[in-house]
Amino acid sequence: MTDTAPRPTLEAVAARAGVSRATVSRVVNGGDGVREPLVERVRRAVEELGYVPNQAARSLVTRRHDAVAVVVAEPETRVFADPFFALQLRGISKELTAHDNQLVLLLTEGRDDHARVGRYLAGGHVDGALVFSLHLDDPLPELIQRAGVPTVFGGRPGWSDGTTDVVYVDSDNRGGAREAVRHLVGLGRTRVAHITGALDQTSAADRLDGYRDVMGDAAPELVVRGDFTPAGGERAMRELLDRRPDVDAVFAANDLTASGALRVLRERGRRVPEDVAVIGFDDMLPVAEQTDPPLTTVRQDIEEMGRLMARLLLRDLDRRNGGATPAGVVLPTTLIRRASA
């Protein structure tokens, strides 16, 4: 066995810096009223001794936990299988880490988990919450409002409770969809189909609206419901080919859906893009560059969406910055052309 060295104390830092214990406490816990030369002495002593502030004591002074809950309204099987969530979490993590905040990940598998998340947020464990992948019947917005924690949502809110000051970050889903479908029409395709995402999410509804903006007179059987997964894309593509074997273009609600559709088209002997042109949405490089053929898709900056969500929340928490937090930020999208269309 080896003896472990005792952790340096607040008193040891005060002795090394030649200041009072109260001065050290104010500096390390974020308090005000200490002259800059003394602040530097304390910081130097902290570094030399390797002192780690007591988080509980720090919270008493700052009323901050330096922790943010990230709530993903999906089961873990979906979260860890879909690169979208990895990209968004990476953006959030980078921004929180840059501001010395801890990320606390909360997933929801079912209704019992919603109640658990609500209790956790109401328990004062975190300073705020970042919430995304909500569904229209999700109870989380009401639970979060009841918990009273500052929150930024990923995606345009789809509930209607009279609240006008909801802060959210989204991409221009409708505009991106319009650009994708216009590109297909510009290629001379006349039977353009759409495989939707999960229509209880606003991103899928907005992309369907964008498709309809361009193809308003399209036959109803050209729209098939998917669920943002490769398996959903496969099921929808088979249904679509059975309904309309003459389809010559497909706009898929995301890249995973498009990857499933491409597999079915290959199975059925349809050449892409010669027989059927295909466009996705997201531009997730692990998917879009590895499909056969590489996927034309609408790019949204998923990682930047995550960073911006975290940035808006931290700005809201840090009242000293002043200024109003924008209610909604919508990021632009770009059509990325590859071999599939």
Give an overview of the whole structure.
- By secondary structure, the chain is of the alpha/beta class.
- The protein has 14 helices and twelve strands.
- The chain has helices at 10-17, 21-28, 36-49, 55-62, 76-79, 83-98, 111-122, 140-147, 173-186, 202-214, 230-243, 255-267, 285-288, 302-317, and strands at residues 67-72, 102-107, 128-132, 151-154, 167-171, 192-195, 223-224, 249-252, 277-282, 296-299, 328-331, 334-336.
- It has a six-stranded parallel β-sheet, with helices on both faces. It has a six-stranded mixed β-sheet with strand order 7-6-8-9-10-12, with helices on both faces.
- Helix 13 links the parallel strand 9 (277-282) and strand 10 (296-299).
- Helix 2 (21-28) crosses helix 3 (36-49).
- The relative contact order is 0.12.
